Structures are given as structure tokens and as C-alpha cells.
């Protein structure tokens, strides 16, 4: 008779414990699983640009504020940089930004070359899209630019295997502030 009670208790508690674990698993989960929310500032006003240039292949660079860094020290392809940036489509919708979840911390960009690089720990660092990469080159610390990137210099070339497939054939706009050259 005693073993029957233990067995009954076990049979009663097992489904109850499973139900409790199942309810716990359906919760919101830890905060590090929450979705990233882009919180960028308003787009830069290109009408206030101190300079603008359009390359033969359609990349337009608006300089909104000249840098206050050392004039002889500008971004080269071998540099790593801290930048604040926001990428938008032509309709103004932000698709990428260093401004996430209310943070204004700059992002570090490590590969300004047109080809993949390997980091010290063996990871592959893919290059930025060509228009963004070229728009960073020559910037001085503190400088602000707006880049208008045609599809061919953005995600429009499927042979480059970029992950922005929903941005193919779209003109992109990036507002960039160069915080520091590392």
C-alpha cells in the first residue's frame, strides 16, 4: 500500500511540475533577448552643408561640419574608427543605426578596405558597403557627413553577397559623425 501512495504522489507531481516549467518557459525571457529598437536623431539638414561633392559613379558626399581633429590625420583604409551613424532609405525609414535602445554610444568600424580581413582572433571582418566605406575615407575627427549612396555602391550588387537583400536597388542615405580614429 505504501508504494502505491509514493507512486500516486509521483504521478500527481510530475504533470504539475511540467506545467510549471512550461509556463516559465513562455515568459518574456531575459532582457538580452529583447528586440533592438533604433532610436536615431533627426536626419542631418543637407541644405546646411559647407561642401558637397558627387563622384562620377553617383556617390554624393555632403560635409555638414568640418572636423576639429588634426587636419593631417584623416581616415584611411587601414584605420579603425568610432562613428555615430544612421542609415535610411529614400523614404526616411531607418534600417541601421549606432543609436540603439536610447544609447548614443559610437560603433567601432574595423574594415575600411574593399576586401574581407581576418581579425587577430581569426574571425572574418567583412568590408562595409562601398559607398559607406568610401564616404568615410578622408574624414577628420568631429566631422559630420551625409552620404547619398546609389544602389550600385550599396546593396544593389548581388555578386557582393551583402546581407541587405531587402535594400537591393535602393538609394541609401547615411548620416555619419566621426568620433575618433583609433
TrEMBL record:
<protein>
    <recommendedName>
        <fullName>Peptidyl-prolyl cis-trans isomerase</fullName>
        <ecNumber>5.2.1.8</ecNumber>
    </recommendedName>
</protein>
<keyword id="KW-0697">Rotamase</keyword>
<dbReference type="Pfam" id="PF00254">
    <property type="entry name" value="FKBP_C"/>
</dbReference>
<keyword id="KW-0413">Isomerase</keyword>
<dbReference type="InterPro" id="IPR046357">
    <property type="entry name" value="PPIase_dom_sf"/>
</dbReference>
<dbReference type="InterPro" id="IPR001179">
    <property type="entry name" value="PPIase_FKBP_dom"/>
</dbReference>
<keyword id="KW-0732">Signal</keyword>
<feature type="signal peptide">
    <location>
        <begin position="1"/>
        <end position="25"/>
    </location>
</feature>
<dbReference type="GO" id="GO:0003755">
    <property type="term" value="F:peptidyl-prolyl cis-trans isomerase activity"/>
</dbReference>
<feature type="domain" description="PPIase FKBP-type">
    <location>
        <begin position="78"/>
        <end position="182"/>
    </location>
</feature>
<comment type="similarity">
    <text>Belongs to the FKBP-type PPIase family.</text>
</comment>
